[in-house]
Amino acid sequence: MSKTEAKESATDKKNLNEFEQHYFNSYDHYGIHEEMLQDTVRTLSYRNAIVQNKDLFKDKVVLDVGCGTGILSMFAAKNGAKHVIGVDMSSIIEMAREIVELNGFSDKITLLRGKLEDVELPFPKVDIIISEWMGYFLLYESMLDTVLYARDRYLVEGGLIFPDKCSIHMAGIEDADYKDQKLNYWQNVYGFDYSPFIPLVKKEPLVDTVEHTAVNTTRQKLIEFDLNTISVKDLAFSCKFQLDAKNQDFINGLICWFDIEFPAPKGKKPVTFSTGAHAPYTHWKQTVFYLEDDLECEAGDVLEGTLTCAPNQRNNRDLDVKISYHFKASGVDANERSRKNENTYLMH
Ligand SMILES: C[S@@+](CC[C@H](N)C(=O)[O-])C[C@H]1O[C@@H](n2cnc3c(N)ncnc32)[C@H](O)[C@@H]1O
Question: Which GO BP terms apply (predicted)?
């Protein structure tokens, strides 16, 4: 699809490792961009955040980190930015060039192909960074590293990042049928024992939509990130959780989702959106971590534990997640129902 030769990119794809090549190739095709554009919660949140902050964008130099089809660049240019620089490594940027020209923004938007870390911007500093960098479970893809790099290298003192706050949340779910289907399928595949697949399936978090009625515990914010102040090392973290069972049921897994917040002037309500099961659909859906045990719970029983998350050593765009838990049942059968365990997962 690309009309650009490798030499026109600030980064020569051949010099990237296989994981990086695969990552950027995945954004070459328009299909993934169509899915993102059609996610109206996502795309309209960015537009609303820019439109509601027109005063902040007026006459400002804006950097769009990972501009894709150029949608955020055009929102910024249309709403008063003096100049927007859109950067993307994937060949989709060639379509962005056509679209930006077609819509009359060629004089306001400069598009640069290459890794943000390698391109040379036409401005030494920018006033605002916009970026849609979020992956499944917020951090999958590790694109936030690039936004933090852009902040440290290019953002003026006191500059703004859209969005600038995000948080990861967790709750327990009843999902026995689907869990059983996912795991036990491998017990008998056309009459053959395929059970060696079961440990692999258990290790893989599931990205899917979860009915909010499946949530059967209290929910908890695990961690919050302020993009103005965090550094890459903060993206490897460990946090404790405590979830209280709401009724007599089974807790088969944990779901995680993230919330996003954009800057707003003092006294103004910020634009926010959530990717939780209680909120409208987004293409990020929710991330399900099935537990080793199916926890038989009564209202008030406590599931406490620790979630540890870090980029995978081999491919830092993948995530290693460890969840250790202690389910503390109460009542006469407390000992029989209580459980302690630890699960490790790889998001890839
Ligand atoms: C999630 S998409 C968002 C696209 C677009 N901003 C939108 O909102 O529709 C992220 C884009 O960032 C690009 N990207 C990721 N890391 C990058 C990097 N280090 N340098 C340049 N582009 C990058 C990807 O190629 C991809 O097109």
Answer: methylation
Give residue 235 CA to ligand 1 midpoint distance, Å.
Answer: 19
Closest ligand 1 atom to 133 CA: 1
Whole-model pTM: value is 0.95
Q: Is any ligand 1 atom within 6 A of the Cβ of residue 179?
A: no
- The DSSP secondary structure of 204-265, one letter per residue, reads S-EEE---GGGB-B--EEEEEEETTT--GGGGSEEEEEEEEB-SSEEEEEEEEEEEEE----
Instruction: State pLDDT tens for residues 289-315.
Output: 999 999 999 999 999 999 999 999 999
Active-site amino acid positions = 132, 141
Give the mutation target among 65, 130, 141 for probing the ligand 1 site: most ligand atoms within 8 A of CB.
Answer: 65
Distance 183 CA to ligand 1 centre (A): 34
Task: Say how far apart CA 4 and CA 262 lie, in whole Å.
Answer: 34
**Confidence at residue 253, expressed as pLDDT on a 0 to 100 scale:** 97
In the predicted structure, residue 6 carries a pLDDT above the cut 70: no
